[in-house]
Design brief:
Layout (H helix, E strand, L loop, with lengths): L2 H27 L3 E2 L9 E5 L4 H15 L4 E7 L5 H16 L7 E6 L3 H6 L27 H15 L3 E5 L6 H17 L4 E5 L32 E4 L2 H11 L3 H4 L3 H5 L5 E6 L3 E4 L16 E4 L11 H9 L6 E8 L3 E8 L8 E10 L2 E10 L2 E5 L12 E4 L4 E6 L7 E10 L2 E5 L3 E6 L1
Parallel strand pairs: 1-7, 2-3, 2-5, 3-4, 5-6, 9-20
Antiparallel strand pairs: 6-8, 7-8, 10-11, 11-12, 12-17, 13-14, 13-18, 14-15, 16-17, 18-19, 18-20
Helix pairs in contact: 2-7, 3-7, 5-6
Length: 447
């Protein structure tokens, strides 16, 4: 072999080894809080978008529950693929969870298509029609259920009520994968509708294009958050001993259909720990007087912050969008909320201020005694319009909007909802492509 090539390879190995060492050892420099804390009195429900996510993200936690006789149930929302692939992945999931020690009767398959983003946003009542318009497989929780968001939400409610969990673990709300984002959205909706009061934690999977790092099987190192999210999220670390780590490795290897394309991705989650994020929500005091956010220089108080740098456009398209249209204008940051005696106010800010050609969508779901109602608002080029997407969509008589260099503010008549609890979300897009979106955030209103 050419000496130059040998030198390059040797240098690469040294640099790579140093990177692995620094990455794995950094957890001792800035330690993360250990959790979630699971006791013998808990009942744990894990909700997975696809057959494999329960093992990839929570295999070590599942082992802990099995060994300590803690009741645990898994719900898999989608079939993981069209036709026969759904059957294959179903069996792989059964085999993997059995390897972890979980009996097949402890896992439920809802069997919906991989279109959860659309089923939550657009196809709440109208069925998604691809490879059939309903659940088809014999293992489906509700056989022949139409592929609608409403049915998924009802199925989730039923499984939550039947199992009565004290802890629910589900995907990170800002996960870039649309099925992970959708699963998180459905869990948030169902638990709000049920007035669930137990603990909730989320898990990351598709949060960055180069994560987990290093990308391959490195069981001797720690799984750490993506560097750009490390200080933006309150992370919890769940340690895994060597024995359970080996069992998780064997469990993941049951997913042969997924290992064929990129074996390094799934095996990157066989580490000395798993990562989780504690659930948070907020409370807002309803103002007894009117606040004119349109004509004053203020923005509604920030309710939550969307992580900077988590846009959905990944290499190499991120370079294209940054060059052509300044991706910073679509990178959401502060999401504001307030309610006065006649208006619900929502706002957004971006890293570089709003784009004149982008589309910004505001979403709100109100939970009250009359059921759940929704309002969806689109802002484009300074114009604000409502969008009717479901049978529970409401039509505002009037909408207020202000767009300036700092961000966008909208005002919705509060008499449309007038509820004590809301779910909020914001997204933006250009050329029919989502560029950034927040997870759903719950706010409780007190008068």
């Amino acid at each position: 072999m050419n000496k130059k090539i040998i030198t390059i390879i040797t240098l690469f190995i040294i640099i790579f080894g140093l990177a692995v060492y620094l990455y794995s050892s950094s957890i001792h420099v800035t330690p993360l809080t250990q959790g979630p804390n699971i006791t013998s009195s808990d009942r744990v429900l894990i909700v997975a978008p696809h057959p494999d996510d329960e093992t990839v993200a929570c295999g070590g936690l599942i082992r802990y529950c099995v060994k300590n006789n803690i009741p645990l149930s898994v719900v898999v929302v989608t079939n993981g693929g069209k036709g026969h692939m759904g059957v294959v992945r179903h069996q792989e999931s059964i085999n993997a969870t059995m390897t972890l020690g979980l009996p097949p009767e402890n896992i439920t398959f809802l069997d919906y298509p991989q279109a959860l983003q659309y089923l939550f946003n657009d196809n709440w009542n109208h069925p998604w029609e691809e490879d059939g318009n309903s659940t088809q497989n014999v293992f489906a929780y509700q056989k022949n259920a139409l592929n609608t968001g409403d049915n998924i939400e009802k199925n989730l409610e039923s499984t939550i009520k039947d199992f009565n969990p004290t802890i629910i673990i589900y995907p990170y709300p800002n996960d870039a994968n649309p099925d992970h984002w959708g699963t998180s959205s459905f869990v948030e909706y169902a638990t709000n509708n049920l007035n669930y009061t137990g603990k909730k934690y989320s898990y990351p999977v598709h949060v960055a294009s180069q994560w987990p790092f290093p990308r391959s099987y490195f069981p001797q190192i720690n799984l750490l958050p993506p560097s750009f999210l490390k200080n933006q999220i309150n992370w919890l670390v769940f340690p895994i001993n060597d024995s359970d780590e080996k069992i998780k490795y064997k469990a993941i290897n049951n997913y042969k259909s997924q290992l064929q394309g990129d074996p390094t991705f799934l095996l990157s989650y066989v580490r000395k720990n798993e990562l989780f994020i504690p659930y948070e929500q907020d409370t807002v005091q309803k103002k007894p007087v009117s606040i004119d956010y349109i004509n004053n220089n203020q923005f509604p108080p920030t309710l939550f912050k969307d992580p900077v740098g988590d846009t959905l456009v990944k290499p190499p398209l991120d370079t294209f969008y940054s060059t052509v249209s300044n991706l910073n204008l679509m990178d959401l940051t502060d999401i504001g909320f307030d309610e006065d005696n006649n208006t619900i106010w929502m706002s957004l800010k971006t890293v570089g201020g709003p784009s004149k050609i982008g589309i910004y969508n505001f979403h709100i779901r109100g939970f009250g005694s009359s059921g759940v109602n929704r309002i969806d608002v689109k802002v484009q080029n300074g114009t604000c319009n409502y969008v009717m997407l479901a049978s529970n969509s409401l039509k505002p008589d009037s909408l207020k909007v202000k767009v300036n260099d700092n961000g966008i503010i909208i005002g919705i008549p509060s008499n449309l909802l007038n509820d004590q609890k809301y779910m909020l979300s914001v997204d933006d897009m250009r050329n029919n492509q989502f560029l950034d979106r927040t997870g759903w955030y719950t706010v409780n209103i007190i008068s």
